[in-house]
TrEMBL record:
Gene from which this protein is expressed: bioA
Subunit structure, interactors included: Homodimer.
Pfam families registered for this protein in UniProt: Aminotran_3
Family to which this protein belongs: Belongs to the class-III pyridoxal-phosphate-dependent aminotransferase family. BioA subfamily.
UniProt-annotated location(s): Cytoplasm
Cited function: Catalyzes the transfer of the alpha-amino group from S-adenosyl-L-methionine (SAM) to 7-keto-8-aminopelargonic acid (KAPA) to form 7,8-diaminopelargonic acid (DAPA). It is the only aminotransferase known to utilize SAM as an amino donor.
Pathway: Cofactor biosynthesis; biotin biosynthesis; 7,8-diaminononanoate from 8-amino-7-oxononanoate (SAM route): step 1/1
Positions carrying N6-(pyridoxal phosphate)lysine: 285
Protein name in UniProt: Adenosylmethionine-8-amino-7-oxononanoate aminotransferase
SUPFAM superfamilies on file: PLP-dependent transferases
Binding site for pyridoxal 5'-phosphate: 118-119, 256, 319-320
Domain of life of the organism encoding this protein: Bacteria
Amino acid sequence: MRSGEELLRRDAELLWHPYSSLTQPAPMHLVTRADGVRLQLDDGAGGSVEAIDAMASWWCMIHGYRNPVLDEALKRQVDEFSHVMFGGLTHEPAIRLAERLVEISPAPIEHVFFCDSGSVSVEVAIKLALQYQVARGNNGRTRMLTVRGGYHGDTFAPMSVCDPVNGMHSLFTGALKEQVFGPQPPAGFDRADDDPEYLAWAVAMRQVAAQYADEVAAIVVEPILQGAGGMYPYSPACLRLLRSLADEHGFLLILDEIATGFGRTGTFFASEHAGVDPDILCVGKALTGGYLSMAATLCTTDVAHTVSGGPGGALMHGPTFMANPLACAVALASIDLLLGQDWAGRVASISAGLSAGLAPAASLPGVKDVRVLGAVGVVQLGGPVDVKRMTDAVLRRGVWVRPFRDLIYTMPPYVCTDEEIATIGHAVTEAIAEGN
C-alpha cells in the first residue's frame, strides 16, 4: 500500500482539481475513510486527522457517509443490473423515482427528464425553454432573463446565465451566449415587499422584462438563496415578482433548486417560501444523498406537450448514463429516508444551532455579515479569505470547510447532532478570531 505522502505527490503531478492550477496546485488532504458525518484525513506525514464534514461534500451528502439504508439500496440494485441504456429501454427504478419526484414537486410539475449532473439539468431546462418558444411560433425568443449574482453550473449554457462580472466564468465573456441580466435582488430573506430597496429593484426588473420581452424565452433563477454566487438570501417577494413577469410576458420560469432543494432552506423546495410554482424545475446534489452524480429536469404538462408537438417532436437531449439504475435506486431510497423523518424539525434545529454558534463572529474585526437560512450558515468577511490559512485553522478544531471568495460557510449533513453543529459554529468563529 502506498503512503499518504506518495499519493499526495502523485495527485499534485497528475490531477486537476476544481478551480485549480495544475502547475501551482492548492494543498490537498487525502481522505482515507468517511463514516457518518466525519472524514478521516491523512496529512501526508504519517499523521491522521478526523473532521466533521461541514460541507456535506458540496451540499449533497445530507444523510452522511456509509448510510446503511442507502448502502443497501445500491447493493440490491447491483444484484439486478447496474446500467442499461435509456433509449428504447426503461426500468422500475427510473419509473418509481419519476413517480416520487412528481409526487413531491410543486403541483403543476408532471414530467421528468433525468440528467447526469446539475449543470446538465440546467442545459436541458434551457433547451426546453427554447424549443417551447419555437413550438409556439416565437422564433426570436432565444435569450434567458436572469439576475446578477447567480450561479447555475460550469457547462456553456449554464455559464451564460451565471453572473457575467463577478462570477467564476468571466474568462469566457464573448464566447458565451449573451443573456439578459437584471439587477441582483436586494439582500435579506425578511425584506418586505413595501421596502424601498425591493420596490426600486421591482421597477428595474419590470423595465428589463418589458424591454426584452420579444427576445426572452424564460427567466432562470435560484429561488431565495443564490448559492455559489455568494450564499446570498433574498426575499420571497422577489420570486413572486419574477413569476408575475413570466406570466405577463409569456416567459417560462425555470427554478434552479439544485442547491436549495430537499429541505436545505427550511422548506422542501425553496420556492415554497414564496408560494411560487415553476414551469421547469432543476434538481440535483442531494437527490441521491451524495452517492452518485444524478440530476433531473422536471416540467409542466404544457411545456412537455408543447415541445413534443413542435419541430422535431422531441426534446433534443439524451445522456449515455441517463436514468442510471444505481443512481435511481439510491435516489429513491434517499428521498424516502428524508421524508420518513422529521426533516423540517432537524433543519430548524441545525438553523438554531448555526445561529447560536456563528453569532459571536459578527462582532469580530474584519467580519462584514453573519447570516443563517435553514441549514446554511455564512460568515462574510470584508475581503478575500486566505483559503489555506482558514481551512487549516478550522481543521485544527476538528471541522472541514471549504471557503471561497470572502465567505466561510457551512451546509452540514442533516444527520449532524446538536453537539456537532455547535462544534462547527465554534470552530469557524474561533478560526476567524485567531486570524484577527
